[in-house]
Design goal:
Strand order of the largest sheet: 1-3
Distance between the termini: 35 Å
Structural class: mainly alpha
Number of strands: 4
Number of domains: 1
Largest sheet: 2 strands, parallel
Order of helices and strands: EEHHHHHHEE
Helix content: 40-55%
Number of helices: 6
Strand content: 5-15%
Amino acid sequence: MGGREYIAIPGTATHELPPLLVRTEPVAAPLDEVVAGAEGIIESEDVIPDAGADERLLAQRRFELALQLTENYLKLISHWNWGDSILEWIRQCEITFESEASLRSLLQPDIWPHAGRSSFVTLLEDKAVAAPGIVLEKAVGLRLTFRQPPPIGCFSNQFLFYLNSPVASSAYQTWAQLSRGKAALLPPERFYFQVLKLDN
């Protein structure tokens, strides 16, 4: 697959990993509070300067921008939820690896989350896990950056419009490259797991 080198696993058995449980709830706060927070960002950062334009037109433009900020924030939270679910799945996979003799030696013990565990994210990509609109590396990067999903008021309009993708990608790449050696890529045909979506 794309010139990737996979580690050799003894035997020919397919190993079942724990299911990946993905939370699909978008945010903890009600949607109207998120929109109000986005409107507050537009007002406080003076995104649309008042240059003598019609007040109704300005209000409409501010509201449209607030809706765009809200949409971007909800996408960020969806990515964070996926990233949090993936990191928890990796923890569960570690337990599975520890319990099976043929897999035990494949993971180096270290402070969690060890960068070598990025091989599990690669496994998800190799297995073509269905995550519409979600970039898995970005999702994990956001979860590595934020322990909890921050409220919309923590962000600037610049972060929500432009900066969250580069920050998340940079966090993931930095984490993945901290591995002491080459990441041990897991052959996708040797592993099986389900992806289950949780409503809450």
